[in-house]
Every structure is written in structure tokens, then in C-alpha cells.
Design brief:
Blueprint lengths: L2 H19 L9 H10 L30 E2 L3 E2 L2 H14 L12 H11 L4
Antiparallel strand pairs: 1-2
Helix pairs in contact: 2-4, 3-4
Length: 120
């Protein structure tokens, strides 16, 4: 098997496995605080987010089943480390993104990530 075929097979198997069993843990993250932080940073202006009052934005993608996503922003593995980095400073990872840097602290980003991983 070539390296490319092996990597492709691993990605496919990983995506399939994630749909049924991926339960990411965000070290130091608290989903309840994350729900509050998502509201305070007004993430719902751009995103549809279940459990957040008035979070009905359609500028960014809906986050209704975020835990099932294989990628963050369509290009980074959906892992707590990448998600926290993305929430803190999306333009640093993808300068072409429409998502602004909102001044989210690392602690807030961990909490927000913990909440997003509850959305299946």
C-alpha cells in the first residue's frame, strides 16, 4: 500500500469512527461557562448555535452538530487543540477567513470548545 493510500484510508476510517464514538475532552474546559462565553462574545450574530438565546446568525456555518465535524474551518482536524486556537484567533490560522479575532482568552476558548463538543 502506498503512503498516500494508507493516509487516505486512515482519514476515512477516522471520519467514520468519529461519527459514532468521538468524545473530545477539552482540558480545563467547562461547557456551561462556554455557553455563557459564546453568548457574551456574540458568536450567535454569525452562527446558529443551539442552546444560546438569539444565536441565529447565518453569516458563518451553523454549529448545530459541531461535535460531528471532522474539520474546523474545513481544513484543520477537529481536535480540542485546533479548536481552541481557532476560537482565540481564527485569522492567524486562516488569514482569508471572515471570522474575526474577538479577543477570546485561552480559558474562554477552552470553555467554548467544551460547549461546542456537546452539540451532536
Amino acid at each position: 500500500m502506498t503512503r498516500l493510500a494508507f493516509v487516505t484510508a486512515c482519514m476515512i476510517l477516522g471520519a467514520c469512527a468519529r461519527q459514532d464514538s468521538y468524545q473530545p475532552q477539552v482540558p480545563g474546559g467547562d461547557a456551561q461557562r462556554g455557553r455563557i462565553a459564546l453568548r457574551q462574545h456574540e458568536c450567535g450574530v454569525c452562527h446558529l448555535i443551539p442552546g444560546i438565546h438569539a444565536a441565529r446568525g447565518y453569516v458563518g456555518p451553523p454549529l448545530t452538530t459541531f461535535a460531528m465535524n471532522v474539520y474546523v474551518a474545513g481544513k484543520y482536524p477537529n481536535t480540542p487543540a485546533y479548536l481552541v486556537r481557532w476560537i482565540m484567533d481564527a485569522p492567524a490560522l486562516a488569514p482569508e477567513t471572515a471570522m474575526p479575532a474577538l479577543g477570546v482568552t485561552e480559558a474562554e476558548a477552552r470553555d467554548m470548545a467544551a460547549y461546542l463538543y456537546t452539540l451532536e
